[in-house]
Amino acid sequence: MFKKVTLAGVGLLGGSLGLNLKIRALAREVVGYVRRAGSVEECNRVGVVTRATLSVEEAFTDAELVVFCVPVSQIPVLARTALPFLKAGTVVTDVGSTKREVVEELEAIFRPAGIHFVGSHPMAGSEKTGPINAYADLFRNTICLLTPTEATDPGALERVQELWRKVGCETVLLSPSAHDELVCRASHLPHLIATALVEHVLGKNSAGVQAKICASGFRDTTRVASGSPDMWRDIVLTNRKQLLSEIDAYIETLEKMKETLKTESPENIRSLFSDARKLRNRWLDSR
User: Fold this and answer.
1) Which helix (H) or strand (E) is 49 found in, with range?
2) Of 52, 136, 250, 278, which residue is least crowded by CB atoms under 10 Å?
3) Rounded to an integer, what is the distance from CA 29 to the centroid of its chain?
4) How far apart are CA 49 and CA 65, in angstroms?
5) How far apart are the C-alpha atoms of 79 and 192, rounded to whole Å?
6) What domains does the chain contain, in order, with CATH numbers?
7) Strand ranges in the chain using DSSP code E only, listed in sequence order
8) Is the Cβ–Cβ distance between 224 and 190 less than 8 Å?
9) Strand pairing category for 2-8 and 91-94
10) pTM above 0.85?
11) At 94, is the secondary structure helix, strand, or coil?
12) Are strands 142-146 and 169-173 parallel, antiparallel or unpaired?
């Protein structure tokens, strides 16, 4: 599909995409742009890219596709850094978890230069980080959300859509605002809930009996709380208004649950769990 692809940031997502590009022969060359010499050595050692480099010029010159795989607050800064080395017609996308602000900023940066930006967000990942944890099946049977606007080049959208399909994703098109609303409920709010649960249960009891008896249920419910603090700080700050609204709505749900518990009705309390079980199982079956 491409002669040269540049991955700006080679962590779990960037590394896994790089592996796919190599294994599936979707690019002749996959270059990883990183910030630390240690990252160059690690990327080359685990083989997630053709080569890694600290040089902006080496990384971005002659790239046909650029994928920003860094925390969302870093994307506009990195875009301006790369801009002088990108040619007109280059396709640029990202893997950021919020879209409204990123799409608006990157379209303003790239459109005057004739560079085509298409926002994308593969709904895949892990609490683990770094290229050492990358694996080729990360995107298999997942959803990738694409967020075109009226300014999006149709040809660029088609190429980005085909890229994600070839690495295993089903693609869904949403507006940037709709993306941030829906992903907030499905991803951002659950992460805050997991974070709050960790603090509530372990904050004052991490060395006591409480911590010892926290088993697989607690571990699975709070898994995402082990994610990157920098990444989640950026996600919260760029989707703060929507997240505050969803927190209020979730508190209402908890209050309704609280009132049900107060009734001491075995039938009503059982319905709480029965209804949730049916909803979750229906969702699992649809996947």
Assistant:
1) none
2) 278
3) 24
4) 14
5) 29
6) 2-174 (3.40.50.720), 178-286 (1.10.3660.10)
7) 2-8, 27-33, 51-53, 65-68, 91-94, 116-118, 120-122, 142-146, 169-173
8) yes
9) unpaired
10) yes
11) strand
12) parallel
| 44: number of Cβ within 10 Å | 16
Instruction: Fill in the amino acid letter for 248.
Output: D
How many CB atoms lie under 10 A from the CB of residue 129?
18
Question: How far is it, in rounded angstroms, from Cα 182 to Cα 263?
Answer: 33
Tally of CA atoms within 13 A in the half-sphere of 196 that contains its CB: 8
Mean pLDDT (whole number) for 158-170: 96
pLDDT in tens, 74-91: 999 999 999 999 999 999
Closest CA to 22 of 50, 59, 60: 50
Residue with tokens 């240690």: 38
Q: Are strands 91-94 and 116-118 parallel, antiparallel or unpaired?
A: parallel
Copy the structure tokens of residue 128.
């683990």
Q: How far apart are CA 275 and CA 170, in angstroms?
A: 28
Closest by CA position to 4, among listed 60, 83, 78, 84: 60
Are the beta carbons of 149 and 176 closer than 8 angstroms? Answer: yes
φ/ψ bin of 142: left (φ > 0), alpha (ψ from -120 to 50), beta (otherwise): beta
Q: Which of 79, 115, 114, 116 is nearest to 96 (CA)?
A: 79
What CA–CA distance (Å, rounded) separates 16 from 128?
A: 12
Q: What is the DSSP string of 202-234?
A: HTTTTTSHHHHH--HHHHHHTGGGGS-HHHHHH
Using one digit for the tens of pLDDT, what is the confidence trace for 212-229?
A: 899 999 999 999 999 889
Tell which residue, 128, 148, 136, has the closest CA to residue 231.
128
What is the helix (H) or strand (E) element at residue 109, kind and residue range? helix 100-110
